[in-house]
Amino acid sequence: MKQFKAGDLTRNTGDLFEAATVAPVAITKHRKPRFVVMSMERFEALTSGRGSQVAVDVADMPEDLGKLLDKGLEDYFRGR
User: Fold this and answer.
1) Mean pLDDT of 5-9
2) 3-class DSSP state for residue 28?
3) Could you identify which of 2, 10, 35, 46 might form a hypothetical disulfide with 27, taking C-beta atoms 3.0 to 4.6 angstroms apart as the criterion?
4) DSSP string of 35-69, one letter each residue
5) Cα–Cα distance between 39 and 22 in angstroms, integer?
6) Which residues of 45-62 are buried (b: 16+ CB within 10 A; e: fewer)?
7) Does the global pTM surpass 0.90?
8) Assign residue 79 a region: left if phi > 0, alpha if psi is -120 to 50, beta otherwise?
């Protein structure tokens, strides 16, 4: 995540906004991330539940997808 120092915001406002259109940007104070600036579209996606993550119960998963998941987990744990 790109970071900007709080003290540099007035000099680099354009750079901050440009970076925030691509991805969230951290604002640091005393070298620690304190705030995040992001596009309105990203904020709305995070707060409206329209995000890309979906929770599902494995028991409700279609059988073919379950088999694919099982194979992927098996491959992962066997180091393939």
Assistant:
1) 85
2) strand
3) 35
4) EEE--HHHHHHHHHT-SS-----GGGS-HHHHHHH
5) 8
6) eeeeeeeeeeeeeeeeee
7) no
8) left
